[in-house]
Amino acid sequence: MKKPPREEPRDDLRITPPKTWAAGVPAVVHALEYSLEQAGPRETAVDLLTMNQVGGIDCPGCAWADPAPGHRHRNEYCENGAKHINDEATTRRITAGFFREHPVSDLAGRSDLWLNQQGRLTEPMVKRPGSDHYEPISWSDALALLADELRSLGTPDEAVFYTSGRVSNEAAFVLQLFARAFGTNNLPDCSNMCHESSGFALHETLGTGKGTVSLQDLHHADLIFLVGQNPGTNHPRQLSALEEAKRNGARVVAVNPLPEAGLMRFKNPQKASGIVGRGVQIADRFLHIRPGGDLALFQALNRLLLEAEDARPGEVLDHDFIRESTSGFEEFAEHTRGVSWADVLTATGLTRAEIEAVRDDVLRSERVVVCWAMGVTQHKHGVPTIREMVNFLLLRGNLGRAGTGACPVRGHSNVQGDRTMGIWEQMPDSFLDALRDEFGFDPPRAHGLDSVNCIRAMREGRVKVFLGVAGNFVRAAPDSAVTEEAVRRCRLTAHISTKLNRSHAVCGETALILPTLGRTERDHQAGGEQFVTVENSMSEVHSSRGRLKPASPLLLSEVAILCRLARRTLGDGPPGVPWGEFEADYGAVRDRISRIVPGLHDFNRRVARPGGIRLPNPVNEGVFRTETGKARFTANAGHMPYVPEGHLLLQTLRSHDQWNTVPYTSNDRYRGIHGSRRVVLVNPADLTALGLAEKDRVDLVSVWHDDAERRAEGFEVVPYPTARGSAAAYYPETQVLVPLDSVADISNQPTSKAVLVRLERTAPAAP
Ligand SMILES: Nc1nc2c(c(=O)[nH]1)N[C@H]1C(S)=C(S)[C@@H](COP(=O)(O)OP(=O)(O)OC[C@H]3O[C@@H](n4cnc5c(=O)[nH]c(N)nc54)[C@H](O)[C@@H]3O)O[C@H]1N2
Ligand SMILES: Nc1nc2c(c(=O)[nH]1)N[C@H]1C(S)=C(S)[C@@H](COP(=O)(O)OP(=O)(O)OC[C@H]3O[C@@H](n4cnc5c(=O)[nH]c(N)nc54)[C@H](O)[C@@H]3O)O[C@H]1N2
Ligand SMILES: [Mo]
């Protein structure tokens, strides 16, 4: 039965007390409600039962690792994974008739929620110059149009190829190969806005951009830090790992400006005790930190550890490890002894006693893991903060041993794999040399554009063609007004997508929608039924095979679209690349990957084994590929987030009911917010100081050096226990407030967790 397209949601805010625990039965019930509404009962049951099982579909929800084969639950998924998968398996369809009814200008006025709710894209569409409508186009004409535009460019660097971390290894590999054979390293990706700070900091200090921790390490750590992440919503299966660690005696320290439900208590829906019991307490200590205070916190902890060593020489630091495996200790130690307590207490908003209590936890622990996510990376000083967390791990040798390590918790299910496949505008020469040797062409060497620089280049007319492979660039990128104007200057924008989003509505002079198979769907090619591979946050590479009938017979796979585009654009060149073979059999792509990517040798055979392949992390073998050949201590200048009187530091984050730029409903159940996403969460004491009260209507006005007016209109105030001086509101609605030039030092990542704002009342206070 065809479900009618949805109405635009009407904001009707209702506030209830925030939850103090996550998951459990209500979570599963909510997932099933959403699933049944989007898909039918058949799809729901089929999908959920194969999710994250050996030989099944990799959950597109997040990049958290699966337990070893044999240790998986029958239902190895979480509430939010179930929602993501069923959002893709929806029975709603967008056909040519929909685009006749809705001109592009109408779509550009719609909410992100509404656009997504219209269902799956089913056939290729084109918007021609001067037209306000998308109309059907054949695959062959669509790819010819795109190829002609690419070939007509003055230089290959006038094209960019954006990817989001949903893309499989095979599609990512083919995409980067095509871009480089075409002649550009312009390969921006969502990672530029996500864990770029982690990549830079870890590379510099440990010689690898990836985390060093396995699920086993987490299970056997005795102290785990959760810094700037909200696992109850964004990585719910991490809570199962934390539950196991706690059963083994671990303590957990959560560091966050918000007391998130999933940090407090977890009721495991996979267990009887989770259904009836009170669940497991997750955080033993909660540090209610000011946004941006994490650098100061870890500097203070490091100073306390150095002082503890002074008091009990030889007992606190791991001298053997420091001597044999690290460099830069003396300089770091001297710098750190000078860290000022007054600055630390101002930057963190914590008391000295709170920080000393954590030091005591550390001194009692043999095996420490630090996990972090967007609350750390999306700050101006994200890179130094992560370097400082590495210093902290190095001091007591908490790296390379079982139960220890650095754990950047990745977002998109294959964001890490895409990087392994060469999706990066700055791939090292070793990778480019390997491409050259394998395929017989010389890849360009100059670094390409990342996401922020891509917008700058479009704004200046230096980029004319934009191809997005998955994702929603227009909404994921900062500074909406600037980004939208820049995108509209393009001659052609094209998107390989499963669902409608704002990037289709805010587009170039010519625009193409190239609809593709989702991960849940069967992928049949000339060489038979295909599977793809992905890499999770713990460097495990495994296969994913869709089971459902494709949403439309006109869909092509990402690999097929890219191989056909490459042939159209490059003719039969470069002679060493068998695009046709790649399209027919993804095993042929994996064969080539196995000769280029270290650790993936014999890819096809090894990935067929249950559980797949774990890529080796050199750190765990005591090898540090840094400039000094050792792990590097660093001396980091302090950073004091600046918040003038009458202003707040706003972080833009995810609700419980969205996938990145795609809201599923207007609710945020764990935070007790229902019926509206246009809300700003502020500490009650700050509200009093600002003369504001619950449900007051305000505009959020961003304050930045360029004096341009950035305003997000029509928000309602929600009193919430955020750290003093800070506020929180949902992304992407607040994307308009994040200045394009407000980026993290070194990583060039937008500072989405630190936007200076003032709240302007727009209606009189309620009587
Ligand atoms: N359901 C669901 N799952 C997802 C996603 C989704 O949208 N929906 N997105 C996926 C993606 S791509 C990613 S990258 C991850 C994101 O996962 P998270 O990083 O958990 O996502 P955010 O919602 O951005 O939450 C950031 C957290 O950091 C805290 N925080 C903000 N500023 C600071 C700070 O200065 N210091 C500290 N210590 N904490 C701070 C916030 O209060 C919040 O709890 O999730 C992935 N999983
Ligand atoms: N202000 C602010 N901005 C942020 C963030 C923030 O916290 N605050 N977070 C940043 C982060 S961490 C990230 S990762 C980015 C996310 O940026 P993106 O990855 O670009 O955005 P998504 O919302 O994940 O993309 C959703 C779209 O992907 C398409 N899609 C879904 N599945 C598939 C598939 O299997 N194949 C194809 N081809 N298409 C598919 C659908 O069309 C859907 O509309 O946003 C960043 N931007
Ligand atoms: Mo992300």
UniProtKB/TrEMBL annotation:
Residues 120-491 form the Molybdopterin oxidoreductase domain. InterPro entries: Asp_de-COase-like_dom_sf, MopB_CT_YdeP, MoPterin_dinucl-bd_dom, Mopterin_OxRdtase, Mopterin_OxRdtse_a_bac, Prok_molybdopt-oxidoreductase, YdeP_MopB. Keywords: 4Fe-4S, Iron, Iron-sulfur, Metal-binding, Molybdenum, Oxidoreductase. CDD domains: MopB_CT_ydeP, MopB_ydeP. Residues 648-755 form the Molybdopterin dinucleotide-binding domain. Its cofactor is Mo-bis(molybdopterin guanine dinucleotide); [4Fe-4S] cluster. Signal peptide: none annotated. It holds the Pfam family Molybdopterin. Belongs to the prokaryotic molybdopterin-containing oxidoreductase family. This is FdhF/YdeP family oxidoreductase.
